[in-house]
Amino acid sequence: MPGPFVIPAVSKGKAAWLQARPSDDGAPHGEMHLYSLAEGQDRVISPDALLPFAFWGQKLLWFERNPPGQGEHKGYLVMTNATTGEREVPPQPLASIWNVGNLAAREYLVVWGDPGSVWLWRPGESESTLIYRAGLGDHVDFPRIAGDLITWRGTQAHWAADLRSGSVARITQGPGDRYMNGNALLISEPVGPIKSNKEWSRKPASS
User: Which domains does the chain have, with CATH numbers?
Assistant: First the structure.
């Protein structure tokens, strides 16, 4: 199958990915695929989907692209039953979100980040909750969930919010990465100075 494939995800025997195509506005969009690992069956569940997307239990959340010139925003959130492939009505307030750069979900929690803040919603609650707003010059990218911890990447470092205490803390001194497995959180950081791309490009080739 031809690419490119954007951010594939796997959950409960299903895989999903966005098969991107060129865009005039620079936003990756294309076919949203839902694949059964047990049956080896691939279904295109949307011809014109946008990033981001995420599995939420037995559901798949993603953004459907509005046709050019239609709708106030580029897209809107939709939900599909990952077992049947049939669309379902997303609960409020998820159906109302639109300015979303990243999305993460567990069965008990949905988290999303817009350019400068982190929001969460728990099933059964009537509205979403703002848990962090970035300062001037900072941003929010790639939120992830590990038990009661919500983490994300900022401009200079990685951050975490503890849902039990409501506290927010910087968890890296600088660039690094985060890895989640269930409730476990692993943090990695460089231990020496980081070379810029220009410094690497000036390194002479070995003979």
Answer: 5-201 (2.120.10.80)
